[in-house]
Amino acid sequence: MKKKLSTIVLLSTALGVSTITVSAKTNFLTPVTSSITENTFATPSPYYQNISDVIAHNTRNGNSLHMYTNIITTRPVNISLTTNLEKYKNGKWTTVKTWSFQKSSSIDLTLSKTYTITKGYKYRTCSTFKCGNE
């Protein structure tokens, strides 16, 4: 089953950093809801066998948005990650860019991308990852 990790970053005129850290104790069978805004941290607690840690954060500097996701596993497994950058416009979220990565028999996978954004809009990243059979 794929796990979905969403980081919502409200980008306004101020510089903001948002981070979600998912530790090996998060139970995704229990719904976790949180609104992540500038300089706010949320830590869900999953139960995984293959996933040791997932770190995701977005940093805005002017018109540049830097997205970072790192997945660390407990043993070498196949890892896949898809991250969508979404923009809130006209009352709905639309995908503006998608990145997909895969690694075979690995213990980590990192996404580090910078994208030029338009001021005055809200942006968020939504990442879906799979590690071995999780």
Report on this model:
- By secondary structure, this protein is an all-beta fold.
- It has one domain: Immunoglobulin-like (Sandwich).
- 0% of the residues lie in helices and 66% in strands.
- It has no helices and 7 strands.
**CATH architecture level-2 label:** Sandwich
What share of the residues lie within helices? under 10%
Tell me the number of strands.
Answer: 7
**Low-pLDDT windows of residues:** 4-37
Distance between the termini: 5 Å
List the helices and strands and how they pair.
Elements: E1 3-9, E2 17-23, E3 41-42, E4 51-61, E5 64-89, E6 92-116, E7 122-131
Quick structural overview:
By secondary structure, the protein is an all-beta fold. It has strands at residues 3-9, 17-23, 41-42, 51-61, 64-89, 92-116, 122-131.
Task: Name the descriptors.
single chain; 134 residues; mainly beta; Immunoglobulin-like; seven-stranded mixed β-sheet; 0% helix
